[in-house]
From TrEMBL:
Major location (coarse): membrane
InterPro entries: Preflagellin_Peptidase (IPR052218), Prepilin_IV_endopep_pep (IPR000045)
Name of this chain's protein: Flp operon protein B
Coiled-coil boundaries: none
Superkingdom in the source lineage: Bacteria
Bilayer disposition of the protein: Multi-pass membrane protein
Ligase recorded as keyword: no
Keyword Transmembrane helix carried by entry: yes
Subcellular localization, as worded in the UniProt entry: Cell membrane
Amino acid sequence: MFNLITFFCAILPILIYICYTDIRYRKIYNIVLVVLLVITIINSFYFSIIPNWKGALIIFLVGLALFYLGGIGAGDIKLLAVLSLSVPENHIIDFILLISFCGLPLIAIVLFCYYVLKMKNKTIPYGVAINTGYFLLYFMLH
């Protein structure tokens, strides 16, 4: 339990900041992701948890292809890859499904704002759904 509390105390402010910048500016900054990566790796080695390198690499490569097709932002892909390092290999699909379910209301809100409220920005701050799905999965596992 100490592992979970320590890890979340370290990453919670970072993930909140990522949500803020993604909503406000539609950006997830690389330096913030590097800090998150370092904390994730330190946590893994300190508590003898093997990082899910394979899952992170697969998510990054598939995400990269989606980025070049225009389907997702590069910051979202990098955030997914970094967070997936701490997701057990047998729960990667659960992680992706939770993110998808968390993204549905977000998509509805953005479309409502675009079509009904006539706001100009139609992009979706998917970092919010990624972080929410990550928290839900992590709390379900622990």
